[in-house]
């Protein structure tokens, strides 16, 4: 157990006082960084990179060497679980992810097993352990998983989709079968995140990328309930600290209240919700992570600074805010713009944490 | 002026009593119909079809010949205005729309003129007149336009986009320039919709397909305010009837209250908002149009019926509801499923309109 030198991220997630607002960026280890592209080239395919703990560690640390970020996030893919379930994940150049054996029948569903994290996904746990060692306590490490609904869409569609024709056809016509898929995935995600925590993840985040494509009742039944089940099954203490859990449904701005009821510690916000309004709705229950439009990073450093100021002012005084983008950083953003973002957050947020009396809000 | 035989659609938009809930489907004249594909084949390109009033009329009427829909919608494209502004619209096979001369500089913006609807978009007005003649009062005809923000994204990106890198870079770094584009578009859309009304459109709808990609403050400043300006500039009476205006921002479920303040008559809802909640929020001010997930049409007719029942029950008693999908019908939906939808809405909605006392809610 190493000493954690910068714990602002963990403290903010637990709404404990901090001296400035911590920041990390979704997809911070990614294609916008030339050093990432170089490592990716060296690795071979994208999955080769994910499955090589040393290289996964290398790209995880790259953004930290450039910017004073307050958290690292495990470099991996959300589709490792379906891959370990035997669906045969592969990536076509220029296309999104694909599965060789998508779910097409109830027999396919029957065959799905819950992977053992150390046996079947050992490369992820090895990456977590390697990164923790190399981080040496600089900042906390975030583990993550896709949500059951999000994973199910890829497994049923056979890859990326915009319309979710097959997944929603199953939802409407064979809800019991979809529940069977989601139940197995909830068990798999729970075991996977607990194994990441055991291996050294100091916070975990569940990415529900496609929950926002559902009707509110369907969201609750087919996405949120399974995330709640996962939250309830997590071992949320390690190394004598609480391990905070962040829930992020892209497009979920209408459902923050019911998301906050799952027992998670924080909600990720995309940029279509005002963070001040979100705080008024659920800030007494959970911390908030977000929520700059990733496209703001196409603007000049001066404009980025102005937008950061707006979000910090909207959130207001006190802890409970982790700055982030509302979605992953885009591959064509200049790295200097990311630098301007991190600097602006650290600098402009200090006044909001100055008063001890307001920090405990 | 012909007698309108079925005015349920117009009455529901004005929250006047009806005997059943009227329905139409976004993109009801479209690729899911074999007869549409045949006419499209005959026309040549997609724009050839839009620019041929006789064929545009033919495809507009096709779904009405199959299903007892309660409204027709002009067959056209939202990008006719930028095309008339000289940007050179074209369609690549298998790709979305493209512009030969996208907006790249302030000089490009200066050059943009406001098209004269009858001179520069006469083919649209001819289509409206032709369709009205051929409809012969069966159902009302809906005219439409894209919203200024939505049109601007295509004009600045040069075609379809997912991320809006260029449009948002302009929004963040050159807001005055974007306001100049939007101001010209608001003038153009106002003139265009007024000309459609003069030619015979009996209701109009503004499609803000990409407003949901904005931060709430940006939505108000760069999309909603311009739609409000358009609503204020419309001639909302024709043939001794009110011409209702419908506003639809896809992904706008968080902003219904401010949308309803524009003075429009109805809001279109996508399927991520519960229509009962929406009615509680804004139903005293506006009618609601929606909001079945288009993917529900992949399900069996029995399931479609169950989903229709759910939406009708959520809306509840009385007028003010036009049934629709939450977005355009998908090209691979079986036409019989659309038939099941229309039948279910007409049949299952009658009890909600039975009581004179509740119909006036």
Quick recap of the structure?
Two copies of one chain form a homodimer. The first copy, chain A, is of the alpha/beta class. Chain A has helices at 8-13, 34-43, 46-50, 53-66, 80-87, 106-111, 117-120, 122-135, 148-157, 165-173, 175-199, 216-233, 256-260, 275-282, 301-315, 335-349, 356-359; strands spanning 72-73, 89-91, 97-99, 141-146, 203-208, 237-238, 241-242, 245-249, 266-268, 287-292, 321-325.
Characterization of this structure:
The structure is a homodimer of 361-residue chains. Chain A has 361 residues and is an alpha/beta fold. The first copy, chain A, contains 17 helices and 11 strands. In chain A, helix 2 (34-43) runs antiparallel to helix 4 and helix 9 crosses helix 11.
Number of helices of chain A: 17
List the secondary-structure elements of chain A in sequence, H or E: HHHHEHEEHHHEHHHEHEEEHEHEHEHH
Summarize the main sheet of chain A. 7 strands, parallel
First-last Cα distance of chain A: 31 Å
Beta fraction of chain A: 5-15%
Low-confidence stretches of chain A: 357-361
Key words describing this protein structure:
seven-stranded parallel sheet, two-stranded antiparallel ribbon, homodimer, 11 strands, alpha/beta, globular, 12% strand, 17 helices, 361 residues, disordered C terminus
Q: What are the SSEs and their pairings?
A:
2 copies of one chain form a homodimer.
Chain A: H1 8-13, H2 34-43, H3 46-50, H4 53-66, E1 72-73, H5 80-87, E2 89-91, E3 97-99, H6 106-111, H7 117-120, H8 122-135, E4 141-146, H9 148-157, H10 165-173, H11 175-199, E5 203-208, H12 216-233, E6 237-238, E7 241-242, E8 245-249, H13 256-260, E9 266-268, H14 275-282, E10 287-292, H15 301-315, E11 321-325, H16 335-349, H17 356-359
Parallel strand pairs in A: 1-4, 4-5, 5-8, 8-9, 9-10, 10-11
Antiparallel strand pairs in A: 2-3, 6-7
């Amino acid at each position: 157990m190493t000493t954690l030198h910068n714990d602002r991220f963990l403290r903010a997630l637990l709404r404990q006082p901090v001296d400035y607002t911590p920041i990390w960026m979704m997809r911070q280890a990614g294609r916008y960084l030339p050093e990432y592209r170089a490592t990716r080239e060296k690795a071979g395919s994208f999955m080769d990179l994910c499955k090589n703990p040393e290289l996964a560690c290398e790209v995880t640390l790259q953004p930290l060497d450039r910017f004073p970020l307050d958290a690292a996030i495990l470099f991996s893919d959300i589709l490792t679980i379906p891959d370990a379930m035997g669906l045969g994940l592969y990536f076509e150049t220029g296309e999104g992810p694909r599965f060789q054996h998508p779910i097409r029948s109830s027999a396919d569903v029957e065959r799905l097993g819950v992977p053992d994290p150390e046996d079947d996904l050992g490369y992820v746990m090895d990456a977590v352990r390697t990164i923790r060692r190399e981080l040496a306590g600089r900042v906390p490490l975030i583990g993550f998983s896709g949500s059951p609904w999000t994973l199910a869409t890829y497994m049923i569609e056979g890859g990326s989709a915009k319309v979710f024709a097959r997944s929603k056809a199953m939802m409407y016509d064979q809800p019991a079968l979809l529940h069977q898929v989601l139940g197995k995935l909830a068990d798999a995600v729970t075991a996977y995140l607990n194994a990441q925590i055991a291996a050294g993840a100091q916070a975990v985040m569940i990415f529900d990328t496609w929950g926002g494509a559902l009707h509110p009742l369907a969201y609750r039944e087919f996405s949120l309930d399974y995330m709640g089940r996962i939250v309830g099954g997590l071992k949320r203490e390690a190394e004598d600290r609480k391990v905070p859990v962040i829930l992020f449904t892209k497009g979920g701005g209408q459902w923050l209240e019911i998301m906050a009821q799952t027992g998670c510690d924080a909600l990720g916000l995309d940029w279509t919700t005002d963070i001040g309004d979100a705080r008024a709705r659920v800030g007494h229950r959970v911390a908030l992570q977000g929520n700059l439009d990733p496209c703001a990073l196409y603007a000049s450093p001066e404009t980025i600074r102005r937008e950061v100021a707006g979000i910090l002012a909207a959130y207001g005084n006190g802890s409970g805010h982790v700055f982030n983008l509302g979605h992953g950083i885009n591959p064509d953003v200049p790295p200097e713009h990311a630098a301007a973002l991190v600097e602006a957050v650290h600098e402009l947020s200090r006044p909001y944490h100055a008063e001890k009396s307001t920090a405990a809000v």
